[in-house]
Write a structure and sequence with these properties.
By secondary structure, the protein is α/β, with parallel strands linked by helices. It has 2 domains: 15-49 and 305-400, Aspartate Aminotransferase, domain 1 (Alpha-Beta Complex); 51-301, 3-Layer(aba) Sandwich (Aspartate Aminotransferase, domain 2), CATH 3.40.640.10. Helix content is 46%, strand content 13%. It contains 15 helices and 11 strands. It has helices at residues 17-25, 50-62, 75-86, 90-93, 104-119, 133-141, 160-168, 192-205, 227-235, 266-283, 289-299, 302-333, 341-344, 356-366, 386-400; strands at residues 32-33, 97-102, 124-129, 145-150, 175-179, 208-213, 239-244, 257-262, 349-351, 368-369, 375-377. The protein has a 7-stranded mixed β-sheet, sandwiched between helices. The chain has a two-stranded parallel ribbon with strand order 1-10. Helix 8 (192-205) links the parallel strand 5 (175-179) and strand 6. Helix 3 (75-86) packs across helix 11, helix 5 crosses helix 6 and helix 14 (356-366) crosses helix 15. The radius of gyration is 21 Å and the shape is globular. Bound molecules: (2S)-2-hydroxybutanedioic acid. (2S)-2-hydroxybutanedioic acid is lined by residues 16, 36-37, 132, 134, 184. (2S)-2-hydroxybutanedioic acid (LMR) is lined by residues 16, 36-37, 132, 134, 184. Residues 30-393 form the Aminotransferase class I/classII large domain. Its cofactor is pyridoxal 5'-phosphate.
């Protein structure tokens, strides 16, 4: 009997997590993983934050049973996360706000995508060019036609005019996916006046904004990084936010995040929540409890919240120092080029402009892993690997004869 799977095609590896698979298989003692967006501490380890450890100790002391969590998540989590996402704007939105616990930022995007597919089945979704690799895949898998709007210019700048031009032509009901801060992969963020312009135009066109806020807190801090969310919240129109604690609380494997939907009014709240609960229930039933309980403990205990803010600031500052260190070393190694873009970009990544060939050379010759797009995770640099990485990039640039790093 022939196998029912004989025709199944081999897919290419995941563009982000597949790099980690290749890194793990590499036996070089000098290997460096600059692929996946994971913050590593000065010793090259994923940190266990003190606030997380203290919250987990508290949970252990409480000795709770491993009961089911409600479909939409732990109430104390949803409530605290709504305040974290919307801060001062929350009271004005509360009556029409739906916030549900999700399986990381990806899970939040997926809940939002599946929900929007039911409400706007003929809509297209517009993502930035470039965007996080999984955005296209995730929204395609949810059944959407995925289009791009201009974002990154060949000279390393932001194509705001192109973005606005595209947005001006979108039909009502289409969805506009935006990176709230620390744009992944380019590290180029919009200015407050640009957010205001986008919000006004999206409102005029009837386009639904969906903000991916996976890196909130990594640019200038939680308050400053809320500028996009605040702009949309103040307008009072419907929009969605996906949120993640993977990076900001270093809770990657716990899969803890949230989807927030600002609905059109109090009467929409119940129906929207019911639809999202149905999607969660038919996909994974209810979210896992440990990550949500840990986050709820941190956000509901002022001492732990303050500790988290301090630890987040330390991560943010260390990334900035690594950016400066890399830019400085490259300036010395390759004096005829301008590397100042590395320090202007924000968040965990630098869009290095390295070509796919240069990235391959980095991998095969130096066991340094970056994404094919040239994105490197500066949050994985430390004092011990900075020289190695800078020297390798400089060698690759010289030997490959690449003329432009940002291109
Ligand atoms: C990344 O962009 O590297 C992260 O968001 C991790 C992931 O899931 O791709």
């Amino acid at each position: 009997m022939s196998s029912p799977f004989a025709h199944v095609q081999q897919l290419p590896r995941d563009p982000v997590l597949g790099i980690t698979e290749a890194f793990v298989a590499d036996s070089s003692p000098r290997k460096v993983n600059l692929g996946v967006g994971v913050y590593l501490d000065e010793n090259g380890h994923v940190p266990l934050l003190d606030c997380v450890q203290q919250a987990e100790e508290e949970l252990l002391r409480r000795k709770g049973p491993h009961s089911y969590v409600p479909i939409d998540g732990i109430a104390a989590f949803d409530n605290a996360v709504a305040s974290l996402i919307f801060s001062g704007e929350r009271p004005s939105l509360d009556e029409r706000l739906v916030t549900v616990q999700a399986l990381g930022g990806t899970g939040a995007l997926k809940l939002g995508a599946d929900f929007l597919r039911t409400t706007n089945p003929s809509a297209r979704i517009w993502i930035s060019d470039p965007s996080w690799e999984n955005h296209r895949a995730l929204f395609s898998a949810a059944g959407f036609e995925v289009e791009t709007y201009p974002y990154y210019r060949a000279d390393g700048g932001l194509d705001f005019a192109g973005l606005i031009q595209t947005l001006s032509s979108l039909p009502s009901g289409d969805i506009l996916l935006l990176h709230a801060c620390c744009h992944n992969p380019t590290g180029l963020d919009l200015e407050p006046y640009q957010w205001a312009e986008i919000q006004a135009l999206a409102a005029e066109r009837g386009v639904i904004p969906f903000l991916d806020a996976a890196y909130l807190g990594f640019a200038d801090g939680l308050d400053a990084d809320r500028v996009a969310i605040d702009t949309f919240a103040q307008a009072g129109l419907p929009f969605l936010v996906s949120f993640s604690f993977s990076k900001s609380l270093s809770l990657y494997g716990e899969r803890v995040g949230a989807l927030a939907v600002v609905t059109g009014g109090a009467a929409e709240r119940g129906p929207v929540l019911s639809q999202i609960k149905r999607i969660a229930r038919t996909t994974y039933s209810s979210p896992p409890s440990h990550g949500g309980a840990t986050v709820a403990t941190i956000l509901n205990e002022p001492g732990l919240t303050a500790l988290w803010h301090d630890e987040l600031a330390l991560m943010r500052d260390r990334i900035k120092a690594m950016r400066e260190g890399l830019a400085e070393r490259l300036r010395v190694q390759v004096p005829d080029r301008d590397f100042s873009f590395i320090t202007r970009q924000r968040g965990m990544f630098s869009y290095s402009g390295l070509s796919k060939e240069a990235v391959e050379m980095l991998r095969s010759r130096f066991s340094i892993y970056a994404l094919d797009s040239g994105r490197i995770c500066v949050a994985a640099l430390n004092k011990a690997n900075l020289d190695i990485v800078a020297e390798a990039i400089a060698t690759v640039l010289r030997e490959s004869g690449e003329q432009s790093l940002v291109a």
